[in-house]
Amino acid sequence: MFDFLDSGRYDLLGAFWVTVQLTLYSAIGSLIWGTLLAGMRVGPVPVMRAFGTAYVNVVRNTPLTVVIVGCSVGLGQTLQITLGGEDFKTMGFRLAVLGFIAYTSTFVCEALRSGINTVPVGQAEAARALGLSFVQVLTLVVLPQAFRAVVAPLANVLIALTKNTTVAAAIGVAEASLLMKEMIENETSALFAVFALFAFGFIVLTLPMGLILGWVSKRVAVKR
Amino acid sequence: MKLRKASAAAAAALVLSLTATACGGGSGSDGDDGKITIGIKFDQPGLGLKKPDGTFAGFDVDVATYVAKELGYEAKDIEWKQTPSAERENMIANGDVKFVVASYSINDERKQKVDFAGPYFVAHQDLLVRADDSSITKAEDLNSKKLCSVTGSTPAQNVKEKLAPKADLQEFGGYSECLTGLENKAVDAITTDDSILAGYASQKEHQGKFKLTGLKLSDENYGIGLKKGDTDLQSKINKALEKMESDGSWEKAVKANFGPANYKNDPAPKITEGS
Questions:
Q1: Which CATH number fits domain B125-212: 3.30.450.40, 2.40.50.40, 3.40.190.10, 3.20.20.140?
Q2: Is 0.85 exceeded by the ipTM?
Q3: Could you say which DSSP state residue B130 is in?
Q4: Coil, helix or strand for B241?
Q5: pTM more than 0.80
Q6: Quick check: A5 and B1 CB within 8 A?
């Protein structure tokens, strides 16, 4: 039933490796950009608050396929913004990472904002009374505690991101779901085997993620 | 490759998934009420396209209508159903559609699951380029070019594995995105079956902008897919196709659907499927 795997025609591990790379770069990028967004949304500057709110609400409510295809067709093909990519392969990968960061960071921002709300207001007030600036209050007092409260929600976001990377097949990034499309095209008689194979592959990626981060979230949670 | 272990592990996962996918199917919508359900593509101009007013147009649609007429169904008794590429075999096997006319290339892999009638058309993998571009004259020229095709499709795989492994290939979800790229010169050529390309080039908004290179990079025999073992239907459809060719309707349908693209099609193929 899984004979087609032994033909040597398909690079299954290579395709899942691209998925892992997409997930990793996008996760790091969204964590940074999402934290900045959260900072803007709770900050004292009205213009930044407005920008943060508008960005999150617009991007979060845009279908991911539109974001990704928009990155490729709009930025890449029409505006010729290639992000230093020499050919379509590297360019597609980078544009896809850009799209995933833009999209996933909104969820990171909102998760983090709910974490900030778990930190008692008194702490921030006390910190300001000591003369700390907004950035100092945020980075030294509030965010360290907020992050510890949102490990579990961020694990959700990470798992969703891992599965969302399949959308990159729409702009031709050679990750797992693109290989799946090729297999479906060629291996008609083993359609369900192909589906099962890729479902299994994603479970192998995401199940440990959930388990490990679930354990971490218990370990680091702030006991109040 | 060390994938034997992977295949064993995946087999275990499959058992789980199969128990979960006991789909209720087979609403068997043929015969009784004098209607016939035919599977086509809804999104390929020139072959099978659903128009904004809900009617259907294209070469596949014309062939299907003619065959249905020969089987004793009027045009109004036809129920069109969308059969995307990945679902064609299962929809036939489940009886969701009586037969499928959807740029369906006959090959051995597919013949394990379904039977074919026809072929009714021979298409070739070809290239669509801007009308003023004549730099591609043979397959080797592609290695220095930027190509575009649909993600995971057979033509895309042909380019990657055989025709031009060094070509810069962009894969998109649909041909429309490729056309955008071709128009603003981000890509040099779109590659897939010439029938599909001719369909796009014949669309009103694209007429005169693009042309086919006429390189015959592969042979695709389009057949009509039907349930495995239904030899009665197979021979009836084959007869209908023969008649369609001999009375000139075939030629007329080709001209009507691909004409504006200046597309030189092959003559109607000999019927080869069937027992």
A1: 3.40.190.10
A2: no
A3: E
A4: helix
A5: no
A6: yes
